[in-house]
Design a protein that fits this description.
233 residues; mainly alpha; two-stranded antiparallel sheet; two-stranded antiparallel ribbon
Length: 233
């Protein structure tokens, strides 16, 4: 088992590595979706704002991807609630990651006439993942996967507490560092996708596919470790 500072496991779904991969994926997939589909799939608050802008300017064609994304994200989110409460399989979290991995790997190979279908499936997969990892923690710090606004506020708050505190406790500094890592990972994912898109175009979504896939294997290993602990008890 790989470990880093203070013997905190690296291969687990509450590690810095997992949080960074998911944040990176969220930034990358949202930028890709905005470039090619004129909508977002992870940041639904952004979709609502953009939708309101489209409606105010009577841009009905531009509004459609946002509406479809919101609807399919909601379906995925609600379906995952059912999966969570009805599935006792230790690997259920891993399975809910498969739709977005499969969809993102196939998106570049279909014609533009299927763009609404593409964003619908990506948003559906994002909804599944959002519910799956609701309440996720990076070490001991709760954070939101695939988004950055809430994590950004927490980062600022923790750094403020750290610099204001006289004792400069390790815990507060570690928390501030954790949120900073998540925010930076999201930004790197977003900007790297935009940069990569200049050179490889629609295939740039594979950045998100690979990081989602890496996260998937971490979740599998985490589930296996948990299963082993259950069996030993």
């Amino acid at each position: 088992m790989f470990k880093f500072k203070r013997n905190i496991p690296l291969i687990t779904n509450d590690s810095r590595l997992f949080a960074s991969l998911m944040a990176f994926s969220g930034g990358a997939i949202d930028v890709y979706s905005h470039i090619y589909f004129h909508g977002l799939v992870a940041t639904q608050t952004g979709n609502v704002v953009l939708l309101a802008s489209n409606v105010s300017q009577k841009e009905w064609y531009q509004a459609m991807p946002k509406i479809l994304s919101i609807l399919t994200f909601t379906i995925g989110f609600l379906m995952c609630i059912w999966i969570k409460h009805s599935n006792s399989n230790i690997y259920w979290r891993s399975y809910t990651m498969l739709p977005v991995i499969l969809t993102s790997s196939l998106v570049p190979f279909f014609s533009e006439q299927f763009d609404l279908i593409k964003i619908g499936f990506l948003a559906f997969g994002s909804g599944l993942i959002m519910l799956t990892f609701t309440g996720s923690k990076i070490e001991d710090n709760p954070y939101t996967i695939m988004m950055t606004s809430g994590n950004y506020r927490k980062m600022l708050n923790q750094w403020y507490l750290h610099f204001k505190s006289k004792d400069k406790s390790y815990k507060i500094k570690r928390s501030a560092q954790n949120y900073t890592i998540v925010v930076l990972a999201f930004l790197i994912g977003a900007f790297l996708l935009a940069f990569t898109n200049v050179f490889i175009g629609k295939y740039s979504i594979f950045l998100a596919t690979f990081t989602f896939l890496f996260s998937f294997f971490i979740e599998i290993l985490h589930a296996k470790k948990h299963q082993k602990q259950i069996n030993n008890n």
